[in-house]
Every structure is written in C-alpha cells, then in structure tokens.
Design brief:
With 392 residues, the chain is an alpha/beta fold. It contains 15 helices and 13 strands. The strands form 3 sheets. Strands 2-8-7-6-5-3-4 form a 7-stranded mixed β-sheet, with helices on both faces. A 4-stranded antiparallel β-sheet has the order 9-10-13-12, covered by helices on one side. Strand 6, helix 8 and strand 7 form a beta-alpha-beta unit. The structure holds pyridoxal-5'-phosphate (PLP). Pyridoxal-5'-phosphate binds next to helix 4.
Length: 392
C-alpha cells in the first residue's frame, strides 16, 4: 500500500523490516523541511516580523495537525526532541505531586522510556512502583493483570498501546477505565502502535499520550498530548522566564522549527491513509511472516499474542541475535536486534536480546519472502559454522 510514496524504500535495494525502530519517511516530508529552511520565514516565536508571525502560525498549525490526527484538543499538544525526553519531563513534573505511600503502576510490556522515569519519580517521592505482569507465554497484558495492581493509592498508570518487541496490544479502553476508577492518571505510550493504527484519544479517554513522529513516517521529533486539566495545571521544571503552564512550559527553549512542516506532512499522510486497506495488507503479510518464521528449523518465535501489530520477535537456536542480524544485513535485509529497551519483557522471556522483524503498510510480500529466504539461509549457515567450530 502506497509503497511508491516512500523514496527510501523504493530506491535503496534493501528490504526494510526495521520499521519498529524507525519507519521510512513519506515523500511529502523532506520537501516540507527543505522549504522551511530555504524560505524567508526563519525566526523565533512571539515577534512582530512577518517571519516571526509565520513561525507562531507554524507551531500552531503543527499542534492542530497532531490534535486532529489524535482526535484530541490541540491546546494539549507538546513537542520535544524524543518521546524519552518528554516522558522524563512528565515524570519530573508529576513527582512533586506524589506523596509517600502513593503507588505507580507500570507494566512488564513497556519500553523503559515509560518505566525508568516512574521509578525515579517514585524514589524521589517515597512512592512505590508495582508492575502489572504479562502472561509468560503469550506475552500479552490482560486487563486483570493491571487491575490486580491497582489500589486507592494508585496515582499513575503508565502503559503501552503495543509492545515494541512482540507487538501485543492490551485492551486500552478497559485498562484506562480501571485506572480512572481508582482516580489514577493514565499515561499511554503510543510510540509503537500509531504507525499501525490511528489512535482516537477522544474515545480512549487517556490523560497523557506519548508518540514519536519518526515511527509514523515523519522526522525525528517527539510528541506529547496532555488532557486539559493537566496542561492547564501541571507545572514542569523550567527556566524562570518561561510560562508556568501550557505547551511552551514543557518545550524548554526553541524547538527545531524546521521539523514542524515535516511533522505536519506526516500527520496529513496519517489522516489520508486508507487504514482499512493498510490493516488488511499488514495482516496478510503478518500471516506469511509468522508461517515462514515458524517453519524454519532452529528459529523460535517469542510470544504468541492474539491481538498485536505486525511485529515478530524471535531467536535462532545457538546463534546470537547480533550474528543473525549482521548476516542478514550482508544480504541487504534490515531487521533489528537487541533488548529494545523492553527490560522487563526480556526478563520474562528469559533473554538478553532477540531479533525483531516488523511490517508496515509500505512493505510488500516480496520483502517478507526475501527476508524468510535469507533467514532460512543464514540459520543453516550460522548453525553449521557454530557446530563446526564446536567440533574443532
Ligand atoms: C514503544 C516505544 N516507546 C518509546 C520509545 C522511545 O521513543 P524515542 O526514540 O522517541 O525516545 C520507543 C523507541 O523505540 C518505543 O518503541
């Protein structure tokens, strides 16, 4: 679907199944960034020059684009260098509102960017972090697993919309409802889910949403949305002259304004995409991917989520993920290896690291087939070499 709109995938001769690490950029993005930098509207905010007024408008337009992409109020949209930075700012702002004995619920499914800041905030406040546990086989997170950790002391529930390793997707509306039932703030990491599925913040009722434009076809810029009470009241650490509340309180100095036209381009693309066709296409490719991975001897898939994004994590028996990823790269197949910063999930899986192949809507069945053929070859090749060296 729309493959020809992704110059990076069409031209380079690589099979790109590394989308969960960072997607390819849609064709409207580079020109939009270039036009800003080559134009006459470069300035800082809040001045009276035409360029400054245009910069105010650009930032406003970017907030509106994200607001309409997420179906959320534009006034709550904040930009920052990455999701990791924004999540840390959020925890720094919420830490002073916590009391000793308060509880934060994190999950074993999450990327550490939505865990470590809460561990630090809890340590600072004398609060406790409780972990909602995933099913050790399917690596899915049930509503009950989160509900089990909630109490009248729970102040924050930090969860992911989808695992960036195995793709599993928790039942968000039900979990957010449970969080609200005990009066907790629900902080949602939507970094991995958004390129697979639009997020309707309005109907989800989340309190904070974190995302990263480079995962959904745009430039490297983080996005955070906060509900009106939070953006209107929460005061992040800041320099003294900066506003106390509102988006600019969080943005800490000049933003990379040149990236905003690119973010708008990516958000427009997200809203123009035929998501039904994209989801069907991803599901078809995922079937081929799972069947293929399961049929290669020596390859073990990690987790068996019933509800998930088109993402597969696996290991190859007796060979390090790094070695497999390197051998695949020699064949111009790009997949990812490592722990993906999903510290708790990898512990549950009993692994230091694994491999991950992810499909986005711009991938084709020939990408998946080329990957499977190459994986089969490198598995045989590396297993033979490992066995060989063992015999010597
Ligand atoms: C699920 C998830 N959350 C958070 C992050 C961190 O995002 P960023 O690179 O914008 O800090 C990632 C990055 O891979 C991710 O996959």
């Amino acid at each position: 679907v729309n493959r020809d709109r992704f110059p990076g995938i069409a031209s380079a001769g690589w099979v790109r199944l590394d989308g969960p690490a960072g997607s390819q950029v849609v064709d409207s993005v580079p020109g939009a960034i270039h036009d800003y930098l080559a134009g006459a509207d470069i300035a800082n905010l809040h001045g009276f020059s035409a360029a400054s007024i245009a910069t105010d408008r650009l930032l406003d337009d970017a907030r509106s684009s994200i607001g309409s992409m997420l179906n959320a109020e534009r006034e709550g949209v904040v930009f920052g260098s990455s999701m990791t930075v924004l999540a840390a700012h959020l925890a720094d702002a919420l830490a002073p509102t916590l009391n000793p004995g308060d509880e934060i619920v994190c999950t074993q499914l999450d990327h550490d960017a939505n865990v470590s800041p809460w561990l630090r905030a809890a340590a600072k406040a004398g609060a406790t972090v409780r972990f909602a546990e995933v099913d050790p086989v399917s690596l899915e997170l049930s509503v009950e697993a989160v509900a089990d950790q909630l109490s009248s002391r729970t102040r924050i529930v930090a969860l992911t919309a989808a695992s960036n390793v195995v793709g599993s997707k928790p039942d968000l509306p039900a979990i957010i409802q449970e969080a609200h039932r005990v009066g907790a703030v629900a902080v949602l990491d939507a970094v991995h889910s958004i390129p697979h599925e639009p997020l309707d913040v309005g109907s989800l009722d989340a309190d904070v949403v974190l995302a990263s434009a480079y995962k959904w076809f745009g430039p490297h810029l983080g996005v955070m949305w906060l509900r009106d009470e939070l953006i209107g009241q929460l005061s992040p650490p800041k320099v003294r002259p900066a506003p106390t509340v509102g988006p600019e309180a969080w943005e800490r100095g000049a933003l990379p304004f040149e990236l905003l036209p690119g973010v708008i381009g990516a958000a427009d693309y997200m809203q123009s995409l035929d998501w039904v066709a994209a989801a069907e296409h991803e599901a078809e490719l995922m079937q081929i991917l799972i069947k293929g991975v399961d049929s290669i001897e020596g390859v073990s898939r990690i987790g068996q989520p019933l509800r998930g994004t088109a993402t597969v994590a696996f290991t190859v028996h007796g060979v390090t993920p790094e070695d497999i990823a390197r051998r695949l790269a020699v064949r111009k197949i790009a997949i990812s290896h490592g722990n993906f910063y999903a510290v708790e999930l990898l512990k549950v899986a009993g692994l230091q690291s694994c491999l991950r192949a992810g499909v986005l809507h711009y991938n084709s069945s020939s990408d998946v087939e080329a990957f499977l053929n190459a994986l089969s070859d490198v598995t045989v090749e590396s297993t033979r070499q490992t066995t060989g060296s063992g015999e010597r």
